[in-house]
């Protein structure tokens, strides 16, 4: 028998060499795929193209851009109109100070313009644009805003159903167990994204809640104090009391300048 590697061992060595070569080829292919993906991603980032637009044929991308722009304008107008309506109703309910409201229609009551809210929205939008730089960075904030709104709406619905409509507790409990379980799961999932921008809607909501409750509580204190002063006998009121001064001024006006 010829000296050297036995035939069986030679086959095993050849198999190992082929396996090593196959692994090297696969590694090189994976590296090429990664490089290709990186180049594709870089090219798309440079071109600033959305993934959804890449799914549309080239000759249909312009209509999609027009449609997306129109949808953005409509959504923005809805936000502005909703902010006007909410601010107006909050002022009527005593949760905000009196606002200058301009009625822009002679036939439609709800068609209004609130200058202070308009300027506030403009300042907020500019701040978000310069702070977050892109709509992608606002994705987590948007998710928290949506899930928070859904949860609050669900809670308010069950409160109204019980306090105003008198719905049985067992029926409300069954509905709340289903809806709130889903809502709170979404909220919990978004809570993990607080440091990535989900804190923004929480901060806005907390600020609005603090302002409205503070104003409402202040109005209650002032109204109660005014009612207490008006309930006192006129002779017991001090001369510096606002109610006393108002009553005296009204009496002088009724008497006239020649009395």
UniProtKB/TrEMBL annotation:
Residue stretches spanning the membrane: 62-87, 108-132, 138-161, 168-188, 194-215
Annotated signal peptide: none
Domain of life: Bacteria
Keyword annotations of the record: Membrane, Transmembrane, Transmembrane helix
GO MF term (any one): potassium ion transmembrane transporter activity
Classification via Pfam families: K_trans
Cellular component, GO, one term: membrane
InterPro entries noted in UniProt: K+_transporter, K_trans_N
Residue ranges of domain K+ potassium transporter integral membrane in the record: 54-230
Claim: Membrane is one of the keywords in the record: yes
Positions of the UniProt region annotated as Disordered: 226-259
Similarity comment: Belongs to the HAK/KUP transporter (TC 2.A.72) family.
Name of the protein described by the UniProt record: Kup system potassium uptake protein
Organism: Actinacidiphila bryophytorum
């Amino acid at each position: 028998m010829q000296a050297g590697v036995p035939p069986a061992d030679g086959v095993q060595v050849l198999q190992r060499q082929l396996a090593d070569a196959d692994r090297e080829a696969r590694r090189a292919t994976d590296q090429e795929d990664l490089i290709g993906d990186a180049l594709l991603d870089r090219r798309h980032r440079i071109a600033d193209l959305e993934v959804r637009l890449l799914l549309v044929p080239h000759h249909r991308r312009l209509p999609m851009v027009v449609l997306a722009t129109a949808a953005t304008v409509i959504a923005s107008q809805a936000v502005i109109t909703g902010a006007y309506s909410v601010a107006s109703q909050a002022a009527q309910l005593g949760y905000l100070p009196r606002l200058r409201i301009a009625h822009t229609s002679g036939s439609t009551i709800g068609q209004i313009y609130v200058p202070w809210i308009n300027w506030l929205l403009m300042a907020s939008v500019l701040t978000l644009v310069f702070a977050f730089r892109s709509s992608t960075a606002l994705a987590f904030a948007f998710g928290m805003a949506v899930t928070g709104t859904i949860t609050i709406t669900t809670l308010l619905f069950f409160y109204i159903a019980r306090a105003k409509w008198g719905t049985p507790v067992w029926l409300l409990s069954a509905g709340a167990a289903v809806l709130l379980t889903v809502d709170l799961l979404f909220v919990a999932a978004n809570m993990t994204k607080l440091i990535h921008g989900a804190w923004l809607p929480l901060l806005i909501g907390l600020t609005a809640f603090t302002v409205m409750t503070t104003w409402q509580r202040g109005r209650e204190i002032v109204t109660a104090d005014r009612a207490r002063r008006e309930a006192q006998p006129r002779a017991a009121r001090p001369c510096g009391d606002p109610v006393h001064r108002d009553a005296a001024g009204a009496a002088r006006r009724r008497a006239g300048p020649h009395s």
